[in-house]
């Protein structure tokens, strides 16, 4: 099992079951801690070697190398500094480090970039209400049809077409997931980033099993540490989860998290607020991919969304910009993983 190097953590103590239990938590969330993403380091480099290079530039508190490569097949990791006054300046200095003829690529993670936190905060409750102006149309929307089903008179067509099977649970022994903790995330992101963040926050011996919606199964999370997380959220509201509880058969997602592609969106209004209006009937926008955010591709926008709709979403809308009208096609990415672990897709995908 791969471990991280860490120092200077703030120990919290809680007396449980007649003994003192110590856990190193919450120091990573403090305002004076700054994280950087890094890649393009030599194969022989480990966390200890990288620590020696990073500590020349500041007060290093943790170095972590991910167990799996990134989407380009490169090893990558994160480093945390304490007391950084100029994050952008430090980013530039770290980005110029050379180790055994390999120049590091270093930048602030997407979830820590200036402007991203504000955007994520603004979108936190998006989808609790519709955001499209003038969307109260006489015709039924795609959402209405998808959720309610087709109608013939007063009878729902899908009500009589759904087959039902009965599965009886095993009488002896419990399910493999009995007794496992489950968390509901405050902020949604793609699975690839989510696994990294949870490893940072909960420790590298806690597994991450994405259940769908904002729900994550956490095998390996002990009862003691779970109680500390609950206490931290109750007292300070600084944990990753708004709810943490044991899994039960009723713990099932009501939404899916999927990538959508928007083809034909007018580039003169290429902004997140307008993308949100375009998919408001589908519900919450979590974030866009790199190509959309940086405007590297303008033939289609790609959005990670949270939706109650069943697979596979396909719809068409008209976007009016001044006197002009544009047909925009909205298509859900489909495949073994639903596109959740990819930031970029093939031009023909969807």
TrEMBL record:
Is the Hydrolase keyword given for this protein? Answer: no
Identify the SUPFAM superfamilies for this entry: RNA-binding domain, RBD
Molecular function terms in GO for this entry?
A: mRNA binding
Q: Which UniProt keywords apply?
A: RNA-binding
CDD domains for this protein: RRM_SF
In terms of InterPro entries, this protein maps to:
Nucleotide-bd_a/b_plait_sf, RBD_domain_sf, RRM_dom
Which Gene Ontology BP terms does the record give? regulation of alternative mRNA splicing, via spliceosome
Q: Pinpoint the RRM domain residues.
A: 34-125
Q: What is this protein called?
A: RRM domain-containing protein
Protein source organism:
Glycine max
């Amino acid at each position: 099992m791969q471990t991280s190097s860490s120092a200077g953590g703030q120990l919290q103590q809680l007396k449980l079951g007649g003994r003192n239990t110590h856990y190193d938590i919450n120091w990573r969330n403090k305002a004076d801690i700054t994280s950087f993403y890094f890649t393009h380091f030599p194969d022989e480099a480990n966390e200890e070697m990288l620590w020696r290079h990073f500590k020349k530039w500041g007060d290093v508190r943790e170095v972590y190398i991910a167990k799996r490569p990134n989407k380009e097949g490169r090893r990558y990791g994160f480093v945390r500094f304490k007391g950084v006054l100029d994050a952008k300046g430090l980013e530039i200095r770290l980005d110029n480090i050379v180790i055994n003829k390999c120049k590091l690529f270093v930048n602030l993670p997407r979830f820590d970039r200036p402007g991203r936190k504000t955007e994520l905060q603004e979108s936190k409750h998006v989808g609790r209400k519709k955001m499209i102006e003038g969307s109260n149309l006489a015709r039924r929307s795609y959402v209405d049809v998808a959720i309610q089903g087709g109608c013939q008179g007063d009878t729902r067509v899908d009500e009589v077409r759904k087959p039902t099977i009965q599965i009886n649970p095993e009488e002896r022994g419990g399910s493999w997931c009995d007794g496992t903790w489950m968390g509901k995330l405050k902020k949604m992101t793609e699975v690839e980033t989510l696994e990294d963040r949870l490893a940072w926050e909960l420790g590298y011996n806690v597994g991450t099993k994405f259940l769908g919606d904002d729900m994550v199964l956490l095998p390996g999370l002990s009862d003691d540490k779970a109680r500390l997380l609950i206490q931290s959220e109750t007292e300070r509201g600084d944990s990753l989860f708004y709810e943490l509880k044991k899994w039960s058969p009723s713990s099932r997602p009501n939404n899916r998290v999927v990538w959508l592609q928007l083809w034909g969106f007018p580039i003169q209004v290429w902004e997140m607020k307008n993308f949100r209006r375009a998919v408001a009937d589908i519900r919450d926008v979590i974030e866009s991919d790199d190509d959309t955010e940086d405007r590297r591709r303008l033939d289609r926008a790609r959005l990670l969304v949270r939706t109650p709709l069943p697979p596979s979403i396909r719809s068409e809308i008209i976007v009016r910009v001044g006197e002009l009208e544009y047909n925009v096609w909205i298509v859900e990415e489909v495949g073994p993983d639903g596109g959740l672990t990819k930031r970029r897709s093939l031009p023909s995908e969807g």
